[in-house]
Amino acid sequence: MKSFLLTILLLILFISHSNADHSIKINELDSLETKLIGSSGREKLEVLLDLCECLVEKDSKKCILYSRQALDLARKLKQPNLEIKALIYLGREHSNLGNYFEGLQNFKKAQKIAIENKLDHSLVDAWNEIGITYFHIGNYKEAQTYYFKALEKAELIKYKEREIGLQNNIAIIYSIYKNHDKALELFTKLLNIYEVENDSIQIALTSVNISNIYDELGKYEEGLEYLNKAIPIFISSGNKLKLSSTLNNRGNIYSKVGQLDKALTDYWDALKIAEKNNFESGIISSSINLGQYYILNKKHEKAIDFFENALKISLENHDKARVMECYEGLANAYELSGNYKMALSNTRLYLSYKDEIYNEQTQKQISEIQIKYETEKKENEIEFLQDRIKTQKRNLLIILGGLLVISVLILRVLKLKQSNLERKNLLLEQEKQMDQLALQKMEAETREKEQENLRLNEEMMANEEINRLKQLKYKTELKHKERELAANALHMVSKNETLNSFKKLAEDALLAQNTEVKKALRKLIQEIESNIHLDQDWDKFKMHFEEVHQGFFKSLLDRHTDLNTNELRFCAYLRLNLDAKEIARILNISVNAIEKRRYRLRKKLSLESTDSLFEYINRF
Hints:
Helix content is 85%, strand content 0%. It has helices at 2-16, 26-37, 41-55, 60-76, 80-96, 100-116, 120-136, 140-156, 160-176, 180-197, 200-217, 220-237, 240-256, 260-276, 280-296, 300-316, 320-337, 340-447, 452-509, 515-532, 536-548, 552-559, 565-575, 580-587, 591-604, 613-617. One of its GO terms (molecular function) is DNA binding.
């Protein structure tokens, strides 16, 4: 069972990356990066994609950087097939980093482009990547759906390379669901294809997969038959790692059918190969298997030696699952040899690691469920938003004519306001020039005085005149800014009146029979009402107000710390000597409500009935 799960895991990794060779050759990578510097256009795009192929799952930072550059360049050059390729590299890297939602979004963008441009091969690639991503987050149902879609399309367009990979993927899903008959059917079909193509390595790997399924089913003779087919291929190809692993698998089956001598031979051969090639995982597996063998043959001391050897390497590699197996084997060996103290000690260690692994697996399952939930939630949100956008576009088309007229009116009003502002700026500039000319004239008259004392007196008088003019100018500017504040307030009135007018027109239009128009107009009314009370105008008004009446709000708050924003705004309007009607129009409320606010403010300011609220506010 353990060897079967290990093989399935190895197969998943293989199919996920079967579309590219990810072994980075340093010289090749340096050559590509050098070539990138002097390239442009389509050539540069192809170099970027070659770099992505070299770096995916090896250097996440660089791979994401190059794939994004390739994506931008492919869009600029209008190369949808290469744009899809860049999106797939980008999606793979996000998925490899655990960002499954971002990976799915990139793959689905690639899917959309492939459909729009009728790029069937690219569509199959995109569906395959979506299926693999769903597989990694544990959503096997969705993964299977996309695998079948991709396989059907691949068979239709004769995309042989992808057909084989997809059949592998689907066989894995069947294996997970314990549908051994379907899994065997697909693996057998693949084996026939590899035999026709004379692909010896794939023949061996697929034979091991078939053997493991027969092992799970308890059909050991069939399992041995396929392992005996795989082992000579691994020997001839020089693949020592897979040879060692497969020998261990065959030894386990020999042990199950009672052929212990053959099992011992395979275990020893697997151990020698692993030790010679420094395959630590192979050494651990072979040592554990030999330990179990010697327990069965009641050679407990030998069994303990092998378990201790496997334990040492497992601890160095922080392989908790193997450490747990070693402690379990040691506990059994010590118990059978009569050393109950050591048996108890190793049993406790075994149980401790078992609990720790169980907790980690539970936490991992919880994390996978959380990732699956978050991914599905985000996808549903995006789907909902897309539907909402479509509805909004349809409604916008209905009210487009009305909005166009309103837009023209608003633009005209804005143009008039801009013209008025330009005229005001021109007047201010002229006043500034006149002030400068007056100052120059006084300085010239002062220099013409012949007598020193008279000159000093004239300078003093000139300085006094300058100060007086500055004060006059300051008062003039103050009055001008007060006029601007009043104009700003009236602008808010005009804005609110305009919005209310639009609201009234929309409400009248609601009497029409068109349901869609009614729905759109209600939304327009809500937008108008929300905009009537925006605080943006108040912030601008407050800024200008502080320029004219510096320290007003600070002084007021120092004296009355419990005043809120609305009360401060009301005090500012009173300081400008605006009457109740003007304030009511600015705030879009009734005059009666203004009187109530005035009453509450007087009470909060602790004013007597004989005190003037306006005079009190003017003190700050």
